[in-house]
Amino acid sequence: MISVYQLKPKFQQLLRPLTNGLAKAGVTANQVTVFAMLLSIATGAFIVWQQSLVWFYLLPAVLFVRMALNAIDGMLAREHNQKSKLGAYLNELGDVVSDTALFLPLFILPQVSPWLVGAFIFMAILVEFVGVMASMVGKQRQYQGPMGKSDRALVLGLLGIVLPLWPAMGSYINYVLMGAIALSVVTMINRIRAAL
Length: 196
What we know:
transferase; phosphotransferase activity, for other substituted phosphate groups
């Protein structure tokens, strides 16, 4: 199934000059990973603290930066001899923590079911867990969609644009979340099948 993740090679190509510059400056993949995680935590916490829809505009901007940082840390690790066991842990933990932090602002929306937000976060964690578990059965880490990390970022980024412009759309977010949860289940099945 189609996934935003399939655009990653072209995105990496655009970021390669910046990545090479960072490597020359002594920036490490692990530093980039930790920075991306801290940026996500700070953004999610700030929006929740402000309790205002106008700050949802931060989501698409930060999600784009986070995607760029995720691509950069991977290229630094692979192309500049920076692979490490700690980096593998930081990469997976950073994704889960960042996703959770950036989804937290959905809890402040009065029209949105907190149960659905919680279920979406839970499914996001499970999807990534299933992807990582492939290595336990002798396969590579799995990234299939249709609701992987990049796809979740796209959904949340679009919500960050739509909600401040049309607050009334908040009443439809429950349906968006239900669809995303269903697609997360499909993603889990796709990743398990690919690994077996």
